[in-house]
Design goal:
The radius of gyration is 25 Å and the shape is elongated. Strands 1-3-4-2 form a four-stranded antiparallel sheet, with helices on both faces. By secondary structure, the protein is of the alpha+beta class. The longest helix has 19 residues, at about 45-65. Helices cover about 35% and strands about 15% of the residues. The protein has a single domain (about 1-145), classed as BirA Bifunctional Protein, domain 2, CATH 3.30.930. The model has no long low-confidence stretch (mean pLDDT about 80). It holds the Pfam family Mob_Pre. It comes from Pseudomonas saxonica.
Protein backbone atom coordinates (compact mmCIF):
# COMPACT_ATOMS: atom_id res chain seq x y z
CA UNK A 1 0.00 0.00 0.00
CA UNK A 2 1.36 3.43 -0.91
CA UNK A 3 0.08 6.83 -0.04
CA UNK A 4 -3.04 7.39 1.98
CA UNK A 5 -4.18 4.65 4.36
CA UNK A 6 -7.74 5.93 4.74
CA UNK A 7 -10.33 7.79 2.69
CA UNK A 8 -9.89 10.93 4.82
CA UNK A 9 -6.13 10.81 4.36
CA UNK A 10 -6.53 10.29 0.59
CA UNK A 11 -8.91 13.24 0.33
CA UNK A 12 -6.49 15.40 2.33
CA UNK A 13 -3.58 14.47 0.06
CA UNK A 14 -5.74 15.06 -3.03
CA UNK A 15 -6.83 18.51 -1.81
CA UNK A 16 -3.21 19.42 -1.06
CA UNK A 17 -2.17 18.54 -4.62
CA UNK A 18 -5.03 20.28 -6.40
CA UNK A 19 -4.55 23.81 -7.70
CA UNK A 20 -6.70 26.41 -5.98
CA UNK A 21 -8.25 27.55 -9.25
CA UNK A 22 -9.70 24.78 -11.36
CA UNK A 23 -12.68 24.10 -13.57
CA UNK A 24 -15.79 22.66 -11.97
CA UNK A 25 -15.68 19.69 -14.34
CA UNK A 26 -11.93 19.05 -14.05
CA UNK A 27 -10.74 15.45 -13.70
CA UNK A 28 -9.19 15.32 -10.23
CA UNK A 29 -7.52 11.91 -10.48
CA UNK A 30 -6.83 9.22 -13.05
CA UNK A 31 -7.13 5.60 -11.94
CA UNK A 32 -4.57 3.10 -13.18
CA UNK A 33 -5.33 -0.61 -12.90
CA UNK A 34 -2.19 -2.66 -13.43
CA UNK A 35 -2.51 -6.41 -13.77
CA UNK A 36 -1.52 -9.48 -15.73
CA UNK A 37 -3.42 -12.49 -16.99
CA UNK A 38 -4.97 -14.93 -14.49
CA UNK A 39 -2.74 -17.62 -16.02
CA UNK A 40 0.38 -15.64 -15.13
CA UNK A 41 -0.78 -15.19 -11.54
CA UNK A 42 -1.57 -18.92 -11.31
CA UNK A 43 2.06 -19.75 -12.19
CA UNK A 44 3.82 -16.85 -10.45
CA UNK A 45 5.67 -17.35 -7.20
CA UNK A 46 4.91 -14.99 -4.28
CA UNK A 47 8.27 -13.30 -4.99
CA UNK A 48 7.36 -12.75 -8.67
CA UNK A 49 3.98 -11.28 -7.67
CA UNK A 50 5.66 -8.93 -5.21
CA UNK A 51 8.20 -7.90 -7.85
CA UNK A 52 5.41 -7.33 -10.41
CA UNK A 53 3.53 -4.95 -8.09
CA UNK A 54 6.71 -3.15 -6.97
CA UNK A 55 7.75 -2.57 -10.58
CA UNK A 56 4.24 -1.42 -11.54
CA UNK A 57 4.25 1.15 -8.77
CA UNK A 58 7.80 2.23 -9.59
CA UNK A 59 6.81 2.68 -13.25
CA UNK A 60 4.00 5.03 -12.20
CA UNK A 61 6.31 6.94 -9.82
CA UNK A 62 9.01 7.30 -12.50
CA UNK A 63 6.47 8.38 -15.12
CA UNK A 64 4.40 10.85 -13.09
CA UNK A 65 6.25 11.44 -9.82
CA UNK A 66 5.58 9.62 -6.54
CA UNK A 67 4.16 12.85 -5.08
CA UNK A 68 1.26 12.75 -7.58
CA UNK A 69 0.16 9.25 -6.55
CA UNK A 70 -2.61 9.85 -4.02
CA UNK A 71 -3.02 6.20 -3.13
CA UNK A 72 -2.13 2.79 -4.50
CA UNK A 73 -3.21 -0.58 -3.22
CA UNK A 74 -3.15 -4.21 -4.27
CA UNK A 75 -6.54 -5.87 -4.61
CA UNK A 76 -6.74 -9.62 -4.23
CA UNK A 77 -10.51 -9.83 -3.75
CA UNK A 78 -11.33 -10.50 -7.40
CA UNK A 79 -10.42 -13.25 -9.87
CA UNK A 80 -7.13 -11.60 -10.83
CA UNK A 81 -4.96 -9.59 -8.41
CA UNK A 82 -4.32 -6.02 -9.53
CA UNK A 83 -2.78 -2.76 -8.42
CA UNK A 84 -5.17 0.18 -8.31
CA UNK A 85 -3.53 3.61 -8.18
CA UNK A 86 -4.98 7.12 -8.29
CA UNK A 87 -2.75 9.77 -9.84
CA UNK A 88 -3.47 13.52 -9.95
CA UNK A 89 -3.22 14.66 -13.61
CA UNK A 90 -1.09 17.77 -13.10
CA UNK A 91 0.75 19.21 -16.09
CA UNK A 92 4.31 20.60 -15.90
CA UNK A 93 2.89 24.05 -15.18
CA UNK A 94 0.71 22.64 -12.33
CA UNK A 95 -2.63 22.77 -14.15
CA UNK A 96 -5.16 19.95 -13.97
CA UNK A 97 -5.51 18.41 -17.43
CA UNK A 98 -6.34 14.75 -17.86
CA UNK A 99 -6.30 15.27 -21.63
CA UNK A 100 -2.74 16.59 -21.62
CA UNK A 101 -1.68 14.13 -18.90
CA UNK A 102 -2.94 11.00 -20.68
CA UNK A 103 -2.20 12.28 -24.16
CA UNK A 104 -2.97 10.88 -27.57
CA UNK A 105 -3.53 7.27 -28.63
CA UNK A 106 0.10 7.16 -29.74
CA UNK A 107 1.27 8.33 -26.32
CA UNK A 108 -0.94 5.74 -24.59
CA UNK A 109 0.41 3.06 -26.92
CA UNK A 110 3.97 4.13 -26.07
CA UNK A 111 3.12 4.07 -22.34
CA UNK A 112 1.76 0.53 -22.65
CA UNK A 113 4.93 -0.56 -24.44
CA UNK A 114 7.11 1.15 -21.83
CA UNK A 115 5.23 -0.56 -19.00
CA UNK A 116 5.40 -3.93 -20.78
CA UNK A 117 9.17 -3.50 -21.05
CA UNK A 118 9.33 -2.84 -17.32
CA UNK A 119 7.80 -6.25 -16.47
CA UNK A 120 8.87 -8.28 -19.52
CA UNK A 121 11.58 -10.29 -17.75
CA UNK A 122 8.91 -11.59 -15.36
CA UNK A 123 7.54 -13.58 -18.29
CA UNK A 124 4.91 -11.06 -19.40
CA UNK A 125 4.32 -9.91 -22.97
CA UNK A 126 2.71 -6.72 -24.20
CA UNK A 127 -0.82 -7.05 -25.52
CA UNK A 128 -1.50 -6.83 -29.24
CA UNK A 129 -0.77 -3.33 -30.51
CA UNK A 130 -3.68 -1.79 -32.38
CA UNK A 131 -6.10 -4.43 -31.12
CA UNK A 132 -9.76 -3.57 -31.57
CA UNK A 133 -10.57 -5.14 -28.21
CA UNK A 134 -12.53 -2.80 -25.98
CA UNK A 135 -12.33 -2.36 -22.25
CA UNK A 136 -15.06 -3.97 -20.21
CA UNK A 137 -15.82 -2.63 -16.75
CA UNK A 138 -15.97 -5.05 -13.83
CA UNK A 139 -19.74 -4.47 -13.68
CA UNK A 140 -20.11 -5.35 -17.37
CA UNK A 141 -18.00 -8.46 -16.92
CA UNK A 142 -20.02 -9.77 -13.98
CA UNK A 143 -23.31 -8.93 -15.72
CA UNK A 144 -22.19 -11.03 -18.70
CA UNK A 145 -21.21 -13.87 -16.38
CA UNK A 146 -24.63 -13.69 -14.69
CA UNK A 147 -26.42 -13.82 -18.05
CA UNK A 148 -24.39 -16.88 -18.88
CA UNK A 149 -23.19 -18.08 -22.21
CA UNK A 150 -25.64 -19.62 -24.67
CA UNK A 151 -24.96 -23.33 -24.97
CA UNK A 152 -23.56 -24.47 -28.29
CA UNK A 153 -25.78 -26.51 -30.57
CA UNK A 154 -25.15 -30.23 -30.39
CA UNK A 155 -23.84 -31.46 -33.72
CA UNK A 156 -24.20 -35.13 -34.52
CA UNK A 157 -22.59 -36.96 -37.46
CA UNK A 158 -26.05 -37.42 -38.98
CA UNK A 159 -26.70 -33.66 -38.84
CA UNK A 160 -23.69 -32.84 -41.01
CA UNK A 161 -24.05 -35.68 -43.50
CA UNK A 162 -24.72 -34.41 -47.05
CA UNK A 163 -28.17 -35.28 -48.43
CA UNK A 164 -28.24 -36.69 -51.97
CA UNK A 165 -30.78 -34.83 -54.11
CA UNK A 166 -30.09 -36.50 -57.49
CA UNK A 167 -27.78 -39.36 -58.37
CA UNK A 168 -26.20 -39.47 -61.79
CA UNK A 169 -23.77 -41.77 -63.54
CA UNK A 170 -20.83 -39.34 -63.34
CA UNK A 171 -22.10 -36.75 -60.87
CA UNK A 172 -24.62 -36.24 -58.14
CA UNK A 173 -26.31 -33.20 -56.65
CA UNK A 174 -26.00 -33.01 -52.89
CA UNK A 175 -27.18 -30.58 -50.25
CA UNK A 176 -24.77 -29.88 -47.40
CA UNK A 177 -26.48 -28.74 -44.21
CA UNK A 178 -25.36 -25.46 -42.67
CA UNK A 179 -24.22 -25.78 -39.12
Amino acid sequence: HLGAKSTDEAMGKLRALLPEKRRKDAVLAVEYVMTASPEWFDKATPEQEKEFFQRSLQWLADKYGADRIVTASIHRDEATPHLSAFVVPLTQDKRLSAKEFIGSRDKMRADQSSYAGCVADLGLERGIEGSKATHQTIQQHYAAVERGVKPLAVITPKAVEPRVLRKGLFSSDVETPEV
